[in-house]
Amino acid sequence: MARVIWNDVVLAASDACEVVEGNLYFPPESLHQEYFHPVTKTTVCGWKGTANYYDIVVNGQARSAAAWYYPDPKPAAKNIKGYVAFYRNQVQIES
Prior knowledge:
Blueprint: E1 2-6, E2 9-14, E3 18-20, E4 23-25, E5 36-45, E6 49-58, E7 61-69, E8 84-86, E9 92-94
Antiparallel strand pairs: 1-2, 1-9, 3-4, 5-6, 6-7, 7-8
């Protein structure tokens, strides 16, 4: 089972992740939503579409835009719709 940990808290855990470009994308239901705060930042990938971001806040400490997801990906990336990936330099990812 893959897990995402930061500040001694498990943010997400799943055995149903998708791997895209070396990143693990976690299903939305695997997230502990209380730690995720939407932000206005977006970026565009030519083949995946527009990514939205979350700040992660645990015990009063924040990681800015440390997680991203594609709410409406292009057809080539439909398998990661709503799935969340994390910057490895911001959190610990165990797989």
